Amino acid sequence: MHRRTALIALTTWTVQVQADSTLAALSRQGGVLMVRHASTEPGLGDPIGFKLGQCSTQRNLSEAGRAEALAMGAWFQRHRLQLKDVFSSQWCRCQDTARLAWGRVQDWPALNSTFDGQGQPERQLAALRERLRQLPVGVLEVWVTHQVIMTALTQAYPAMGEGFLLDRQGQLLARGMMVSDV
To answer: In whole angstroms, what is the distance from residue 82 CA to residue 30 CA?
Structure first.
């Protein structure tokens, strides 16, 4: 039984490494890498009465999430990926993911959560699709956002810290966790 468990673990690790390598290779060709914020403290959504710009009122990154965000930045450096811009939701967990991973961030309300009736989903998705269409060929941007935005745009469900590479038409080209693949 231990041998079978080890084989399953090795197979799972190999599939993850291949997915991460594919994500890196395709990212070199440009597009948008949408990233769900790194792992947070337990919970769903935000506490009642949360306020943008006041991190103490929100669900924030956990210690593991901060380490994940730093690992994302290291993964980008290891693969020598060149970013034009890093955009983020205004939620602290997204902003912190971006700052820890890439050292910079620009607020973009179109990436804000629409969970539980928040925001303006159709308007936000239209803005995201428009920016995708206008992205110059060969340019790579990162958008740090929430599961609900990524799923609405791609029909796929991301894990915390997972990246989806999209082309200019919004097609999902690759996905991965941006972890060590060496």
So the answer is: 9
Provide the domain limits for residue 10: 2-176
Cα separation, 170 vs 168, whole angstroms: 5
- Spell out the residues 6+ positions from residue 59 whose beta carbon is closer than 8 angstroms to its own: 40, 41, 43, 45, 46, 47, 50, 93
Amino acid at 67: A
| pLDDT tens for each residue of 69-118 | 999 999 999 999 999 999 999 999 999 999 999 999 999 999 999 998 88
Q: Is 51 left (phi over 0), alpha (psi -120 to 50) or beta?
A: beta
Please choose, from the candidates 40, 110, 31, 105, the residue with its C-alpha nearest in 3D space to the C-alpha of residue 68: 40
* pLDDT confidence band for 142 (50 / 70 / 90): very high
How many residues would you count in the chain? 182
Task: Please indicate, yes or no, if residue 181 is contained in any of the structural domains.
Answer: no
Q: Which of 129, 171, 180, 157 is nearest to 36 (CA)?
A: 157
